[in-house]
């Protein structure tokens, strides 16, 4: 019954899910195509759809975009800006489709919640990625995953079960990986306790849950961005706090002390917290975007996703096609930074600057500290950096002391 009610409320909300201004404006030149035979074993019959633009970049990046309950690959393709970005930047978008009635994703079964769990949706999606990288000579270091609601739950699960595949993830209004686990191990089960925000665990407990989903894995993990509305009555907002605890825990940061807090960013009423900011990860390795007075779900913000994924105008290598003068500057600056800095590490930033610290740096007149924000659209804090750091434009919304 709880599930039925949820599906009805999701259906009712579906027409207002996406307000991305880019979605309608961009003309799509190729078409969404179903792919079969992408996996040697797909007993759940999870479907794969793909959008390959007419003009593909060399070594294209890949975005996996996962629909909500009652949604389809076609719906998410139409309602999000990702296929438009494929045309614009030559990347590929995979739109998986759930095989279950009501099209929620299986984020509850034993096999869905572990690496290489045969017959599960998560394994099928991983196979879609591997197939696409191979068929189109994709860039394995630029694979990203995003989704809304049930798709955001699956985004959490993919980041936990296949960390080796993804560089970054963005989850719009989901729950932590493992939160929907079914005590009986059943597939596609609803978990009211989690949905209601009553599955409260410590960062250490969530971290163990994630680590157990891929036992023995010690490689890199995708940067993780959590977005959630403060008045979400489908997946209660406590799920924001739990998801933040999970991923800050996995990376070894303290959820209570973000390195940076931005009010009214990226929109009025939103608060953005970032952890793990360093030269290779100017926006951090974990970011939480808490959308005050937003319900279920937070609308897809394609431009912010490109920033988080470091794609298109926000690419960190010189290879991206840039169309704007400002973007060229960003790409050039970033390329220099990458070339001269050490590779990304999972080392924590030794000193974290809270919102208070940033403010005092601003009023103290000595300039903001290393890795602090020093400019960008809507930025009202310090615009100079403490010596010897320089204020570097990362993108139109964010400049940083480096
Ligand atoms: C959850 O996070 C939000 C946004 O940071 C915060 O306002 C709220 O106090 C947190 N809730 C709990 C119970 O920690």
UniProtKB/TrEMBL annotation:
<keyword id="KW-0325">Glycoprotein</keyword>
<dbReference type="Pfam" id="PF10503">
    <property type="entry name" value="Esterase_PHB"/>
</dbReference>
<dbReference type="Pfam" id="PF00734">
    <property type="entry name" value="CBM_1"/>
</dbReference>
<keyword id="KW-0624">Polysaccharide degradation</keyword>
<comment type="function">
    <text>Esterase involved in the hydrolysis of xylan, a major structural heterogeneous polysaccharide found in plant biomass representing the second most abundant polysaccharide in the biosphere, after cellulose.</text>
</comment>
<dbReference type="InterPro" id="IPR029058">
    <property type="entry name" value="AB_hydrolase_fold"/>
</dbReference>
<keyword id="KW-0378">Hydrolase</keyword>
<dbReference type="InterPro" id="IPR050955">
    <property type="entry name" value="Plant_Biomass_Hydrol_Est"/>
</dbReference>
<dbReference type="GO" id="GO:0052689">
    <property type="term" value="F:carboxylic ester hydrolase activity"/>
</dbReference>
<protein>
    <recommendedName>
        <fullName>Carboxylic ester hydrolase</fullName>
        <ecNumber>3.1.1.-</ecNumber>
    </recommendedName>
</protein>
<comment type="similarity">
    <text>Belongs to the carbohydrate esterase 1 (CE1) family.</text>
</comment>
<keyword id="KW-0732">Signal</keyword>
<dbReference type="GO" id="GO:0005576">
    <property type="term" value="C:extracellular region"/>
</dbReference>
<dbReference type="InterPro" id="IPR010126">
    <property type="entry name" value="Esterase_phb"/>
</dbReference>
<keyword id="KW-0719">Serine esterase</keyword>
<dbReference type="GO" id="GO:0045493">
    <property type="term" value="P:xylan catabolic process"/>
</dbReference>
<dbReference type="InterPro" id="IPR000254">
    <property type="entry name" value="CBD"/>
</dbReference>
<keyword id="KW-0964">Secreted</keyword>
<feature type="domain" description="CBM1">
    <location>
        <begin position="366"/>
        <end position="402"/>
    </location>
</feature>
<dbReference type="GO" id="GO:0030248">
    <property type="term" value="F:cellulose binding"/>
</dbReference>
<keyword id="KW-0119">Carbohydrate metabolism</keyword>
<feature type="signal peptide">
    <location>
        <begin position="1"/>
        <end position="23"/>
    </location>
</feature>
